[in-house]
Amino acid sequence: MTRSKYFFFFFVLFSVLLFPLSHGEACVMRPEKINFPDTIDGWRLEGEPKRIDKANIFDYMNGAGELYLSYHFDHLLVYKYKNKSGNDIVVELYTMKSPQDAFGLLSLDWGGEPVNLGQPEDGKFMKAIIPQNRALYGKGLLRVWSDNLYIRIMAFRDVPGVKKVILRLGEIITAGRSHPLPPEMLRSVKISTDSPWTLMKDRTAYFRSYLVLNSLFYISHENILNLDLSTEAVIVTYERELETREKQTARLVVIKYPDQERAVTALDSFFKAYLPDQKSQVTPDRERESQGFFHIEDGWMGFRLSGRELALVFECPDKQSAQEMTEQVLLDSLSN
Amino acid sequence: MKKEKITVTRRDFIRGSVGATLGFTLLGPEWLKGAVSSDSRSSVVIVRDKNVMDTALNADKEVLENMLEQTLLHVTGKKNRNEAWLTLVSPQDIIGLVPTPLMNPTHDELIDVVKESLVSAGIPAENIRDAQGRSVDLEPITALISLPGLKAHWLTGIGTVIKNYILYSGAPRNYHHQNSTKLGEIWNLPQVKGKTKLILVDALHPVCDKGPQVDPRYRWPYNGLIAGTDPVAVEAVCLKIIMAKREELRGEPWPLSPPPICVEAADKIYKLGNSDLNTIDIETIGWAEDLLV
What is the ipTM of this complex? Predict the structure, then answer.
């Protein structure tokens, strides 16, 4: 091969590898092929994996497919192990287009026993607003966030010894994969040390869709906050104990829109549907930060809008708490 | 004058104005004129047996047969199983069984027991069909027996009775978002309306959160069948059980989110039955521990 042919060959190769970047998609080369063992402690791998994508996800899991499409879903591979008694272990590898999306899926439920599959501990900051875990196990189901993979390994029957096999499979799948930090968006929420409110870190979730928001904290059956795959959002739950030992909870939702106009439009849409009686009192200011607090049926709610970020608080017992919570959010600087 | 759009929100649930807002949203202001509550009462039967599943969660057909018989006798008030079936269906009927096919599916053992029981009551075996799915021809079917699995659903709150006919719509995804309120309209499609003779919910091993994708942490052996002829009343009782289980798991109120708006809509908008527990008589038979109603 001549020198110019070598040059041409490498030019084409690099062009192909870099092409997706030009379309704004994350292009990180990751090992797609995982070497699953044929047998593991008496469990045998059954045939080739089933590949599920956007076109057939509803055939595979019916309405649950909406959950994965609410994040940047690429495809799913389903492997099955069987033992001599006919019990199954199903391994589902959800390949998401970014680690943030895979993280989001794990963040929807922090319940279960934390397990370490050889993954590193996260930074101090993240510990404060979310649990530190990347893998959780409970009653035969292991859920893992590993780079851009969300993994579910489930035994349909929690038979003796199955947990060990499931954890081993988790280790095999995650071996050699990178461990990015949780989404930057989570840094929007500050931790206050002198507040009577405690941030319930096992209730913090990262999402992009109103369907997911509604499954965590119902606001409306319609998409009144104009959430979609181009938005990022986090929900935080605060709790405080009263003198009567009764507990109060309040919610903070922070949303980052692609631009300021989208944020302003979303706030307008929210007010029309949620607070039509207060609509006249809200005129979002594009030049400076705007905020407002309203007493409604379930307590005080408030908003703070700055640049392309919007913070909303719900169910606060008083105006002061609502103000305090919105102030815990580091919103976009208008100069950005 | 341009009509202002009305959207159901959290505030409607707190104010107790969901029915009114739904009426306006789905049917317009004319809805108010016809919005009269029904005076009739509904009955729901819960039959449980501690031994219906073994420790490995295998269902015991013999125990299920007995549970089915008890259910039929109490739903119909008849003295024997065959007589009970013949008050619900006739040997001339073409009967469609509608189980839950995916994600916490109806136990095969329950479907088998229902088929065998129908045959022993004199229904020709060839008249009994599987009627679940979007490609089912409902035209020749004269009687439907709905056999859903009890589960919470992350998009609709509950995904049991009213949602069990979703595939008959031909466009199930259209009923998953804000339009989940309209699930009841499927029951009023000409090929479906009036055909349901019995709702028999498989509550052996329900899911109380994250459904339909199963998370074993939210499944528990309830070991029950829940039945009746009013789909909304059966759903309302199922809902009560799921909510009670959620509260028990967390030790504090843990409301379903999103709220199962399709249940109230099925009652107030589509007039399919009673959703108010004050208008439902619940009869319980068998194992009474952790009944949750």
Answer: 0.87
Taking only the tens place, the pLDDT of each residue in B133-170 is 988 999 999 999 999 999 999 988 999 999 999 999 98
Minimal C-alpha gap between B156 and chain A (Å): 9
How many CB pairs below 8 Å do chains A and B form together?
103
The full length of chain A comes to 336
CB A110 within 8 A of CB A127: no
Write out the two tokens for A167: 């954890």
Backbone angles phi, psi at A242, to 5 degrees: -85, 170
Within 8 A of A154 by CB-CB distance, chain B residues are 214, 216
The per-residue pLDDT for range B44-67, each reduced to its tens digit, is: 999 999 999 998 889 999 999 999
Distance CA A16, CA B114 (A): 59
Beta bridge partners of A43: A40
Residue type, B36: V
Given a contact cutoff of 8 angstroms between Cβ atoms, the answer to whether B225 and B46 are in contact is yes
Write down the pLDDT at residue A162. Answer: 96
> Do residues B35 and B83 make contact, with C-beta atoms less than 8 angstroms apart?
no
CA A189 from chain centre, in angstroms, equals 15
Q: Do B11 and A297 touch (CB under 8 A)?
A: yes
Look-up of token digits 């065959």: B82
Alpha-carbon gap, residue A68 to B173, rounded angstroms? 14
CA-to-CA dists, residue B130 to B87, B98, B139, angstroms = 21, 6, 14
CA B75 to chain centre: 15
Nearest C-alpha neighbor of A127 from the set A194, A202, A180, A233: A202
Instruction: From chain A, pick out residues whose CB is under 8 angstroms from the CB of B15.
Output: 297
